[in-house]
Automatic annotation (TrEMBL):
PANTHER family: PROLINE-RICH ANTIGEN HOMOLOG, PROLINE-RICH ANTIGEN HOMOLOG-RELATED. It is found in: Cell membrane. Keywords: Cell membrane, Membrane, Transmembrane, Transmembrane helix. This is RDD family protein. The keyword Metal-binding does not apply. InterPro entries: Pra-immunoreactive (IPR051791), RDD (IPR010432), UCP021697 (IPR016795). Pfam families: RDD (PF06271). Residues 38-138 form the RDD domain. The chain crosses the membrane at residues 44-62, 68-88, 100-125. It is a multi-pass membrane protein. It comes from Arthrobacter cryoconiti.
């Protein structure tokens, strides 16, 4: 005879034994404070600041051309993130980009991240640690300063 134990296992829900309690836990980061994963609010603020500055620069020098806005934004991301580890927006919102191994980000990572950010889709698709495909591709993460 079939009883509830045989058919009812799905009622208990999926196995959650290997799901982390907070973003960055699997990466060995603290839950909050300096060095913790940057949350969505800070990320959105940073990209809005960077995009706004790019827009102002494009208006001043290129007449507001939409491709110029994108080019200025990409150039800012490539150079500043690749060399300093943060863009102007990151700096204002208190976050920075770092590699998983804590090495400097580097220009190659800055260029690849910028290209993927400009494509937008890799930014929208994130994992449980709030890392987008652009971060996963270059083994980087955004942490609080």
């Amino acid at each position: 005879m079939v009883d509830r134990k045989d058919i009812g296992s799905w009622l208990s829900g999926p196995d959650t034994s290997n799901i982390s309690n907070y973003p960055g836990e699997r990466l060995g980061l603290p839950e909050s404070g300096r060095g913790s994963m940057a949350r969505a609010g800070r990320r959105i603020l940073a990209i809005c600041i960077d995009w706004g500055l790019s827009y102002l620069i494009a208006i001043a020098f290129f007449g507001g051309n939409s491709m110029a806005i994108l080019a200025v934004f990409a150039l800012e991301q490539m150079v500043l993130v690749g060399t300093l580890g943060f863009s102007i927006g990151h700096r204002v919102s208190g976050i920075r980009v770092r590699r998983l191994d804590s090495a400097p980000v580097g220009l190659l990572a800055g260029v690849v991240r910028a290209v993927l950010i400009c494509l937008l889709i890799p930014v929208i698709i994130v994992d449980a640690d709030h890392r987008g495909l652009h971060d996963k591709a270059m083994k980087t993460l955004l942490v609080r300063r």
